[in-house]
């Protein structure tokens, strides 16, 4: 497991033998980075796959919303419109549930 260094300015986490010279996100210098403990680093690595899955579910739910809007616009019959409206509601809930989970992960260092 490589060492992880967290930017104390923006939260970016870099991987390597030492802190990056400059934060790729906010440009802060190396001295603004702190090395994560092995426990904290293990949390970041352990949660990476699950976080990516949540983000993919969010992207798919977003696609359902966009397709459903197209379906509503197509307006074949009233039941289609109702079905697409329900799909939008359900996809929104799915998206927000995953976002809430990710926000929880961020608060406890699983990010
Ligand atoms: Zn930064």
Keywords for this entry:
single chain, Methane Monooxygenase Hydroxylase, Chain G, domain 1, 111 residues, mainly alpha, binds zinc ion, Rubrerythrin, domain 2, 2 domains
**Element string (H = helix, E = strand):** EEEHH
Structural class per helix/strand content? mainly alpha
- Strands of the widest sheet, in order across it, are 2-1-3
Estimate percent helicity: 55-70%
User: What gross morphology would you assign?
Assistant: elongated
* Straight-line distance between termini: 16 Å
- Uncertain spans: none
Provide an overview of this structure.
There is one protein chain. The chain has 111 residues and is mainly alpha-helical. Helices cover 60% and strands 11% of the residues. It is built from 2 helices and 3 strands; from the N terminus they run βββαα. It has helices at residues 38-74, 78-107, and strands at 3-7, 13-16, 33-35. α1 runs antiparallel to α2 (78-107). The protein starts with a strand and ends with a helix. The site of zinc ion has 8 residues, from loops.
């Amino acid at each position: 497991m490589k060492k992880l260094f967290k930017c104390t300015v923006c939260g970016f986490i870099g991987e390597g033998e030492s802190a990056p010279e400059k934060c790729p996100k906010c440009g802060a210098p190396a001295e603004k980075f702190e090395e994560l403990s092995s426990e904290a680093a293990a949390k970041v690595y352990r949660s990476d796959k699950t976080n990516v899955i949540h983000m993919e579910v969010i992207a798919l739910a977003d696609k359902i919303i966009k397709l459903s809007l197209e379906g509503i616009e197509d307006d074949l019959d009233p039941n289609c419109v109702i079905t697409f409206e329900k799909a939008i509601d359900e996809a929104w809930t799915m998206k927000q549930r995953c976002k809430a989970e990710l926000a929880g992960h961020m608060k406890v260092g699983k990010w």
